[in-house]
Amino acid sequence: MTRRLSVFGATGSVGLQTLDLVAREPESYRVVAMTGASNVAQLAADARRLRAQVAVTADDARLGDLRDALAGSGVEAAAGRTAVLEAADRPADWTMSAIVGAAGLEPGLRALRHGGTLALANKESLVCAGPLLRAEAARFGATILPVDSEHSAVFQALAGERRADVEKVTLTASGGGLREWPLERLRDATPEEAGRHPNWDMGQRITVDSASMFNKAMELIEAHALFDLGAHEIDAVIHPQSIVHALVQFRDGGVMAHMGMPDMRHAIGYALHWPERRMLPVERLDLAALGRLDFSAPDPARYPAIALAYDVIRRGGLAGAAFNAAKEAALDLFLGRAIRFTDMAPLVERVMTRLDPRLEADTIGLDMVLEIDEEARRVARSLAEDTAWT
Ligand code: NAD
Ligand code: MG
Q1: How confident is the model at residue 390 (pLDDT cuts 50, 70, 90)?
Q2: Does residue 356 sit in the same domain as residue 302?
Q3: Number of domains into which the chain is organized
């Protein structure tokens, strides 16, 4: 059976690895839509190769370039935010959500309306609006499958288990590229230094988030949103080798750990073939060759983002949307060298405090999320300007 498939964020790290798997069995899929942003040459080349119906760049200004690159291919070209959303309206059986940032939320929500499978790499959308995504999935009979490696690992460890039997879920974290830096040097870390990852080859933003452990903070909230876990039922442990991806502990004390070499194509391929397992081109684990696996508790002084995540989980409502937007703004400011690496967590915390009275909500809607998202970014930028951060 040919499945209709769309890839949002097709030019990024997760997107390209998704295309790599799809291209290995072209007869199984009909590619509906592929989207990217600035890299239109890559987008056009892959859209041609995979015979996509439509290729969309989120960047309005690049429509001409995309059209030129697709001339004579039979692939439609489109540009802009609205075109990305319209691409999500085209029926597909399986959609990869791999845009980076809150920009991935709306395309994901639209894709759920086809009632198919949403392979969700875009953790920001779960952090911003987890309950909304799950409600929409239920309403349209769609399935959300986690692609974040830790959450794919939890999902796999939970297969055939009962929620009531789960005592605790532990996500592992590599500790990022600055794990061994002396604490007092962290304030001087540059975007280049924070943007190198020891184990995973990922986009720049998530790599810096790994170094600050804002990535793990997001993932704790993501686990809460996906698996109905309370703050006391989730934790994170540092595991520098990134071989164990997550552990689920049950009420009888048994623990299921998911292991494998760090390669996102495992989690992507699992979501692509679920509920089946198929052969995937990933390196096999050789524990004897690895020799050892290390674990330690994250130091709260080095990784203050973790404590912020627990606060977000406890509060619910719009706290996740504000947290994600503040974090994205803080990351932009750091990447633009306007604030220091160690300023990001205090800045996010201050935004949360400032927005505090507005974060309570029993149910959240898209408009509320978009509004608080914009407000949190604005507050983050103005706080960063007001204060002598350096
Ligand atoms: P990336 O930066 O490599 O790629 C991002 C993609 O989003 C690109 O295709 C880019 O063109 C597109 N994009 C960027 N801004 C956009 C916008 N405003 N509108 C539409 N499209 C836009 O990122 P990535 O590392 O592939 O990560 C993608 C998502 O997957 C993120 O949410 C990330 O947290 C998550 N994730 C990534 C990895 C990984 O290994 N890279 C692992 C787990 C989860
Ligand atoms: Mg992850």
Answers
A1: very low
A2: no
A3: 3
